[in-house]
Design goal:
Elements lengths: L1 H8 L3 H33 L8 E5 L4 E11 L6 E6 L3 H4 L3 E5 L3 E5 L4 E6 L4 E10 L5 E3 H38 L5 H18 L3 E5 L5 E5 L3 E5 L6 H17 L2 E2 L4 E2 L2 H32 L4 H13 L4 H24 L14 H25 L3 H9 L4 H30 L4 H4 L26 H10 L4 H42 L1
Antiparallel strand pairs: 1-2, 1-5, 2-3, 3-4, 6-7, 6-11, 7-8, 7-9, 9-10, 12-13
Length: 515
């Protein structure tokens, strides 16, 4: 201990300051990362928490009901104002209201205030007045509330039956009919059943009264869920929060990507990254082997290395333009002329799709894999190669059985860096296959099961579209935060998978080399 203290005391003053500066930089980086993740988690996951609904009475006698979003100072600095999400956009054209704090006379939280989550127009907030059932019977009070709960359960079952019939019966028979199959009778029967389900869903409506006293009728088939936030216990709110997070992860988007879930975007992002990794890894590894193990180390090889490193810094949109011109219009257009002439002028491969997006991102990340793999090959001592050759191994056996296993961690490092960059790229995907809305994932039960020609959704593009192209950016921001957090977690899971695999292989080959 004394020796260690004396050795630290002998460190020059500059080295001690440098160590503290390095430690401070690491701590600052970790704090910035934690702050980013905390912001995304609080703003994103907090969106699914059923917040209380406030009934606000103003000095002029008006009333409004809504969820308090935030409170900020007035521009002139004379007071503060609050932002409330009041819903009911189909009544007055807006779902937000700024209220000066000085104009508020009273704030209460009545337990009878209800929130309706709808297919269109967002949320509706008010008091339940009456429910008209599918038989035409009008009910009020507690009876109306009980009938409404039962009707919501029935509507959920009808929607599930309708979606199953449409996806598993109607759509396959429409496709078979287009291909010349004799399924007209089956298709007519399925469509008749589909109309019956739709008619059963459209029966009934409820009467809602707003905080201002205005009443209007809401069709029951437009309502997805009903809740009373002010009457919920913390445990009830936690259950609703968990259900909201699950729906976000398992359902598709709706309302112009400002509501619903992101399951197609999750699936499309992971599938595209996996295809990109499968395409880029062999080409990157073979290129690195050639440059480091086969090619003559002369001026031309050095120029190739410089070119590869420069390609890693080319803007991603340039690769998107290249993929659009070469892959989509060039190769894809030729494939349509050779194999899909009957479908023209509707393109099959001559338009953006999963295959062309994966190839474009494989080309984008190819320099990263080449550089990382070549650096790993360069770190292997020449004695390993010479020892294998001295024992009678051929050059191919030396590469495949000695060099490549020892360089596997470096290869996986290149794949990790490629995955991290490709999963967050958006600009090239806008040109070669990503879509604003593609509820059907590129994998299904129809041959060839994986449809490389289909467009797909991507988490990064979903964030861009919801944040800048939506009709109500304020309403979309919580989903933007939640999707951004999800994208970070998806990249983290993909990277951790590769890191664990790299650690396993590194430990295994390290043990073999010690033997």
């Amino acid at each position: 201990m004394r020796l260690a203290k004396r050795s630290r005391a002998r460190l020059p003053r500059g080295e001690g300051a440098g160590a503290w500066l390095a430690a401070g930089s690491v701590a600052l980086s970790l704090l910035a990362l934690l702050a980013l993740l905390s912001l995304l988690a609080i703003r994103g996951l907090g969106h699914f928490w059923p917040a209380s609904i406030a009934l606000v009475a103003l000095d002029d006698g008006r009333q409004l009901a809504g969820e308090q979003v935030r409170e900020v100072p007035l521009p002139d600095g004379t007071g503060r104002e609050r932002l409330y999400r009041i819903g009911n956009r189909d009544l007055d054209g807006t779902r937000w209201a700024w209220v000066p704090v000085s104009a508020i006379a009273a704030v209460s939280h009545p337990p009878e205030l209800m929130v309706l989550e709808r297919h269109r127009w967002g949320e509706a907030i008010g008091r339940l007045v009456a429910v008209e059932s599918e038989t035409g019977e009008r009910l009020e009070g507690q009876a109306a509330r009980a009938v409404l709960e039962n009707r919501m359960t029935e509507l959920a079952s009808l929607r599930q039956a309708r979606d199953t019939l449409r996806d598993e019966v109607v759509l396959p028979r429409v496709q078979a009919l287009q291909e010349g199959g004799d399924v007209e009778r089956e298709l007519a029967t399925a469509n008749a059943r589909l109309r019956e389900l739709q008619a059963a869903m459209q029966a009934g409506h409820l009467t809602l009264e707003t905080a201002s006293g205005e009443r209007w009728q809401v069709p029951l088939d437009q309502i997805l869920r009903v809740r009373y936030p002010n009457a919920m216990s913390p445990l009830d709110k936690l259950v609703v929060w968990g259900e909201g997070v699950w729906r976000f992860l398992s359902e598709g988007p709706r309302a112009a990507n400002t509501a619903g879930g992101v399951w197609p975007a999750i699936f499309g992002t992971v599938l595209m990254v996996m295809l990109m990794s499968i395409l880029v890894t062999p080409f990157g590894v073979l290129a690195a082997i050639y440059l480091n193990e086969v090619a003559h180390q002369g001026r031309l090889t050095r120029l190739v290395r410089i070119a590869v490193r420069n390609l890693a810094g080319v803007p991603s949109i340039v690769y998107g333009v290249f993929g659009l011109g070469v892959f989509v219009y060039g190769i894809g257009g030729s494939l349509d002329e050779w194999f899909f002439d009957a479908a023209l002028p509707s393109p099959t491969f001559g338009t953006g799709g999963l295959l062309w997006a994966s190839l474009t991102l494989a080309l984008l990340t190819l320099p990263v894999v080449i550089v990382a793999t070549e650096e790993g090959l360069a770190r292997i001592p020449d004695q390993q190669r010479e020892g294998a050759l001295a024992l009678g191994a051929t050059r191919l056996e030396m590469l495949t059985r000695v060099v490549l296993p020892m360089a596997t961690p470096a290869m996986l490092t290149g794949v990790i860096l490629a995955v991290a960059r490709a999963a967050g790229e958006v600009a090239p995907l806008m040109l070669v296959g990503v879509a604003k809305l593609a509820p059907q994932v590129p994998v299904d039960a129809d041959f060839p099961f994986l449809h490389l020609e289909r467009k797909f959704m991507h988490l990064g593009y979903h964030i861009f579209d919801a944040a800048f192209h939506g009709g109500d950016v304020q309403a979309a921001m919580p989903l933007v935060y939640a999707t951004a957090l999800l994208l970070v977690l998806v990249i983290l899971v993909l990277n951790l998978t590769a890191i664990f695999l790299r650690h396993h292989l590194s430990t295994r080959h390290g043990a073999l080399s010690r033997r």
